[in-house]
Amino acid sequence: MDKKYQIIYKNRGRNIVATNREVLIRKVMSKIDSESLNKLLKRDPEFTLLHIVRNDCGCEFSYKTELDIPSESVVCKHGNEVIRYTD
Fold it and tell me: For the chain, what is the total number of helices (H) and then of strands (E)?
């Protein structure tokens, strides 16, 4: 089965909490399978490492590689936290 996207989080109105960016990247990397890791390493243009969907407001955020994951907390256009770093 060919996966176009690696959807890691579909949260139900909750944000993703991590100490910092590096911890979040480790969390995400620990969840991917070998096929997805291969796509990431080859920088497959169809692959998305982290896809976040907020079910309460419908906002979506996609990060193709670990380098794209932001180092600052993320808030959607509705003012809802998407990623919150505690450091």
Answer: 2, 6
